[in-house]
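re: ur question from earlier - yeah i can do the single chain one, its not a big deal. heres the input i used so u can compare w yours
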Amino acid sequence: MIPDLKRYRIITRGNKLVVIRATSQEIQDVFGKDWNSNLISFSRIMGYSVELGDEIKIEMNPDRPDLFSLYSLYNSYRQYFGMKTSPGKISGSDRILKGRTDHRKWAAAFEVKFSSKDYSLIKDALNFTDKISDATGRSRKLFAFGIHDLDEISGDIEYLESSSVFEFETFDGIKGNIHELIKNHEKGKEYSKHLWDEGFLLLRDKKGIISVPPLFNSWRTRVKESSQNLLVDITAEDKKSLETALRLSVGYFINSGAEIRLMKSDNGDFDINELISRRKSKLTPVMIRKYIGIKSSEEDIEKNLRKMGYKKTSTSEFEIFTGRTDVMGSVDLMEDFLKGMGLDQIPESPLYSSFTGSQENTNLMSHNARKILLSMGLQEVVNFVLTSPKANQSGGLKILNAKSGEYSEARSDLLNGILEFFQRNKHNGFPQKIFEVGDIIENGNQSKAIAIGICSSNSSYSEMKGYLDSLISSTSVSNFKVLQDDIKHFIKGRSGVIEKNGKICGFIGELHPDKIKELGLELPISFLQVDLHSLSRS
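and the output i got, formated as tokens:
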């Protein structure tokens, strides 16, 4: 059991790397007298790092958010080494979550019943939910939690929007009207960027407001040292984010031995039981042999995956624990199989190859194109291949079982990445002249393209056409021509498609002023994109 963690805290760094800080005594009370060797030996398995000193720092791997607390890390340690654990159970609540909203419309709630009063465990839960909100939830943008004393909750919970000004007392005892709190309270200043101009989101019970998500909870329902049971509410930007938050939090409380009581919602868009249902995936000795090169048996696989929290349901099929949001399929089971076996137990074998390596033709073309564009005075940028449906307005290949709604599609062009770069860097001054060489997936086919974007007072179609001519001339490519065509988001008469040998291989244009205004920019923007293979001399 975790001690009273008066100094125990978790912080997230700017890159969302999570660091658990605790004294040696606090860790000893959890991991035992041999905490030093226990914690460090387990770090070699799970991939975190430990920095010793007056204060112990445990840097957690961002891809394991289910371990973002001292207690959850210790529970994983106990499971790995076959110690007895007492997981909790899930049932239904008599309470209902009512209401719908147009902004941040996804919401869920559940009750947490502990078998005994232990504030240290509740404090650990507060730290855990707070930090996955900041790290995995992108500083509460994707999802945020509200944790309340369940014994102070009266009746059902209602989720609603309001534009009225009202008086409120925050969880830390600060009183004021909602506008004053948003302006002056630490949480209001930090997270008000997630609000919209017309009003606020509220959660309330029969006695009044219990939360203003994603900002602060009420004083009345605050968690105290005398608290034994909790009400957890979650608000999210999209369904996938809600599922991630539910899986992480429910998984945490199940591991703590608590009883989870799920609240039904009158929002017909989802079923809370389905969102946390345990997924399944397969791993066979044949797969282990094919992809890892190790001989194994069904018994070996089950033994090693059990140490990592999996439960075998049938031949070669395993149930994935609710809180393991990082597990997508068989490839993750293979990684956990190796961790269960012990990475130091992987047999070494020599690598043989009868081939001589050479640079792939597409990479060679990319390298040459970069040199040309850099010599023209442009700066290279690199954006993510995965993007959101909102940003990828031209439509793209959807990712099955995407971990985040923010990265759920493969981009179909380089335009949106270039425009988002201008948005993020408008405080750096203009002109900005950039290019990108990157992969796109269009109509189900993957290819590599080159894009140039210019945002300046003199940016125009004519200027961009000059860059295209220089690029084509430098690569000694013939049969290129530009045909006038009206392209979405570009000015009519000042855009067109790029054609080579009768085949369209790109587009060029001057962005429409309405689109520029929508992006929060003021200067003209011109853009071109051309397929990299078309720049070959063939």
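The first helix runs from residue 24 to 31. not sure if urs matches, ping me
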